[in-house]
């Protein structure tokens, strides 16, 4: 075999033949320290297994202390020092598992040989890691947007739009809760203080605030000819928003520009249309626009008549009580005979385009304020009411002490209350008692004790020390892992009593928390990021190629995958069901796309699939659409997604200057995506990765951009060819066979999932030092059919979750969390 492609990773493969014979051997113990002039490699040769001889014979011609090909010299490496080279060997194992090395086109070891070597090397590394524990370290860990919003709701019962309040989070290793990326600059801190003021004002409410105005715009991609969820039945179009009203009073609503002026003419008023405004599903305004009378008036007076029509829908005064209310605006649905039905055939769309839509709504106020009613947030805050001036400060201390304890996620000290009470005093002096509480709450929400998952001072501990988390730290880490929010009172009480770290108690709490509705965050937060579901929002299908695609289908796909993943993870089923389950969840729109008959209505329901190509994640529209481009499928995106997400073996990034994928030129020969990729793979440098990636993606080619099954490529006029041979040598001809090929190696899929879940749980990347822990969790879960709860418990019981190793330099930065 030629040495020209022998890298430190592929060199491992050359040892695999001998590994099969020794795979059952016990782990090799470290040899005594060497002395004299004998080199480490020479000393190891006396007791080294056959792999080391194979390494010397086949790979040291390139990988030696003179040439340093690939940055590795095998002639000076020793089996005695395997732990020092663990990072290289873990990379090698990952490449071998994904068949990324040796490159496609080169002679390949058979699967049994690879498995035997991987098993042997993992056993060696696991044995060495047990003797040298390294639980890792997580630095200052700020709340991300999702956690911040959930904490505000937990504390105050208030739903806030964090996108408008806080800077965008940066993702790392696939997740937006990785501590190293959640840094706070002075500019960020200003935004957090501003957010604290805004939220405190909303939570308390104010009868003395000045009127303000908010503008809302409808989703431009929403189908305005269908019913919108959250609006009354019998309506079409429009939109619904949750709006905060600061006080009891009158508010003005203006429904903006729902007819159109073009070229000096008013259009879309041929027929009468009833517009309604609702608050908490109660109709508070309705008016008709359009029809013969308005049309005649516009014909005579044009823009003047148009202004008068618009005025009917401006400055609509409605009295509303303080708090957050659901505001909706829509058209009353006309009958099918009146040409306004969402069920009209595609041929009627030009006719439908003459009907108005509602692009926007503005809300101003309050006016004529009468006070502030009790809201859910005020009821949580004001646990006492002072009857006299002398009672105000003790009541304020009681209120702020409770809020601070819940916000800081632990019992508080007198020192913790100093800042909130000082701010209370300033607010009380400037206005009144409630203003003082608002100011004190602002101080609490601005504190690093709230914004960061605080730690006790570990000053005095030796650098490099391994320390257990305190019970209170464990409570926070556990709750943010399973709920994406702080601990509840039961966890706090157990932690304060020092009982949470008891294995039996911890096990009981994990069970309880997984069954709590708050664990849905494991689906919407963890799983959605792991599967990259959010990318469906970035894919805009070409309206010419996919004219029937609409926002309802996009949202339907999102809801389908949410319900599907929830049915596996939160029902404590085997995670392998994510790949093999024949049950999914559809409504009428999704069922129509999938060709499932007899499903009516917008409500989602479970259905049993008869076509195995639709089983599991590989048949989900959200996955298929998020791994496509707007105008074509992408076997490269789909194959890379499978390698990284389902197999845990991400391909290397393309080299600089790589030739772009060849798109079909106007008027040129139309080639299938597969044909164009085949040309792309003729270059050996491209085939080294695409030879692994492309066959995985080709297996999904029967699905188009928007996840619909197809047998022919309409553009090229040829039948879809979904056949191929995976890098492992397994032949597949479609999604069902690809799923079976993945399920044939269940531990690999479960390990990929476990790694991602650990990143999410710890808030840091999984390092090569963590891989022995990951493998142990997977082995333990195998005994329970890889149930999700077993994997979660394995992570929670691990040293990586329950301990920390202080940095080798200094633990001083930890003090910052207490300021």
Mean pLDDT: 84
Approximately what portion of the residues adopt beta-strand conformation?
A: 5-15%
Structural class: alpha+beta
| Low-confidence runs | 1-46, 339-353, 811-819
Main β-sheet, spatial strand arrangement: 1-10-3-8
Radius of gyration: 31 Å
Give the overall shape. flat
Structural notes for this entry:
It is a single chain. The protein has 819 residues and is an alpha+beta fold. The protein contains 33 helices and 18 strands.
Write the layout of secondary structure elements.
Elements: H1 10-13, H2 16-22, H3 40-45, H4 50-58, H5 86-97, H6 111-131, H7 145-156, H8 162-165, H9 186-204, E1 212-217, E2 235-245, E3 248-256, E4 260-262, E5 265-267, E6 273-279, E7 282-289, H10 292-301, H11 303-311, E8 316-320, E9 323-332, H12 349-352, E10 360-371, H13 376-381, H14 389-408, H15 414-430, H16 433-446, H17 448-451, E11 466-468, H18 471-482, H19 489-496, H20 503-515, H21 521-530, H22 551-569, H23 577-580, E12 583-586, H24 588-594, E13 605-608, H25 621-626, H26 635-646, H27 673-680, H28 684-698, E14 712-713, E15 718-719, E16 724-725, E17 731-732, H29 735-743, H30 746-762, H31 771-782, H32 788-797, H33 799-802, E18 803-805
Helix pairs in contact: 2-6, 5-6, 6-31, 9-16, 10-11, 14-15, 14-16, 15-16, 18-19, 20-32, 21-22, 26-28, 30-31, 30-32, 31-32
